[in-house]
Amino acid sequence: WNRWCCSPSRPRVLLLCRYMGTLGSQVMCDNIPGLVNKQRQLCRQHPQVMQAIGAGMKDWITECQHQFHSHRWNCNTMTRDHNLFGRLLLRSSREVAFVYAVSSAGVVYTLARACSQGELDSCSCDPSKKGSSRDSRGSFAWGGCSDHVEHAMRFSQTFVDAKERKERDARALMNLHNNRAGRKAVKRFMNLECKCHGVSGSCSVRTCWLAMADFRRTGDHLRKRYNAAVQVAVNQYGTGFTAAHAHFKRPSKNDLVYLEDSPDYCIRDHESGSVGTGGRLCNRTSRGVDGCEVMCCGRGYDTSRVSQTTKCECKFHWCCAVHCRDCHQQVDVYTCKGQR
Q1: 252 burial class (0-12, 13-18, 19+ CB within 10 angstroms)?
Q2: Which residues touch 159 (CB under 8 Å, ≥6 apart)?
Q3: Is residue 330 helix, strand or coil?
Q4: What percent of the chain has pLDDT over 90?
Q5: Distance of CA 196 to the CA centre of its chain
Q6: Residue 174: which H helix or E strand, with range?
Q7: Residue 314, class by beta-carbon neighbours within 10 Å (0-12 exposed, 13-18 middle, 19+ buried)?
Q8: 99-139 pLDDT, tens per residue?
Q9: Cα separation of 273 and 7, whole Å?
Q10: For the chain, which terminal residue's Cβ has fewer other Cβ atoms within 10 angstroms, N or C?
Q11: Is the pLDDT score of 180 beyond 70?
Q12: Are 229 and 258 in contact (CB under 8 A)?
């Protein structure tokens, strides 16, 4: 098995799903270390669901990397480490809060989509969306296939949260909070989509269904929550959070929360899970987080000239093609110097 499956961190739970097709579900689920009994039970009972979630992992990892592509921490995965994000997940930083939220959201999104597309025996379209209803434009009839997000959220909560509900320490409370924020983010962007019926498209009758928005909207929302994440401490009863500092607001259910400050991610540090920024591309003219001064942490950068091929002089030909030339140019590329 892939070494990632041996991680003590929750994302290992998602990685086990990749292998359901080659090993029996009972053999696989019984031999993955670190799962609590509830997770093993659900794993054995729903191998199709596990496969669907595993196949959808690339979507939320890609989204995480898109959101942070120009930052010192760029949601980098570590293929040779014991889990996707290495020792980073042992911390309780705001980056870990985002990883848990976006992965929880990814499970909901993937599962709801698999249900709607008829890939699973255990679910399909939302059965509650039937009959008629109303919105600001008037009445409509439920039809089509509404994404069954409620079912996906229930399964995600039962399966993903099982380990944290067993632990109930400060880190478990943090994970549970961010898991829930991720699930709620998917539901937040459900859209009512409709098809018109009537003479000459008059839309005298509408058939509508609820559909999830593109996952990018969830990612953008969670990224904003990351920017405004609240540092917290566990309350005196051990049941919830208070703001870690007096001038911080009390976190809402939609906020991301974290317990400890992040490293600066400037240099490679095995203990903190930082891979450093040595060798990263930077923008010499930018004063933002992608600029060489910020990205390279004051260490300076190297300049190299590379050949770049782009499409140019594109012309439209009737009908219906676009022909372009391949244009070659020399461009300067800037990369951060490594630590001395």
Answers
A1: exposed
A2: 13, 38, 39, 42, 43, 107
A3: strand
A4: 57
A5: 34
A6: helix 170-188
A7: exposed
A8: 999 999 999 999 999 999 999 998 999 999 999 999 988 89
A9: 14
A10: C
A11: yes
A12: yes
pLDDT digits (tens, 9 = 90+) for 42-53: 888 888 888 888
What superfamily does domain 277-340 belong to in CATH? Wnt (Wingless and Int-1), C-terminal domain (3.30.2460.20)
For 326, the token pair is 């391949």
Nearest of 54, 20, 67, 25 to residue 289 by alpha carbon: 67
- As a whole number of angstroms, the longest Cα–Cα distance in the chain is 74
Strand partners for 209: 193
Taking only the tens place, the pLDDT of each residue in 66-106 is 999 999 999 987 655 556 777 888 889 999 999 999 999 99
Tell me, what amino acid is at 161? D
Place of tokens 């903190």: 272
Type of residue numbered 334:
Y
The torsion defined by the Cα of 154, 157, 159 and 162, in degrees rounded to 10, comes to: -140
The end-to-end CA distance of the chain, in Å, is 37
Average pLDDT over residues 201-229: 93
Q: Domain-by-domain residue ranges, the chain? A: 3-224, 277-340
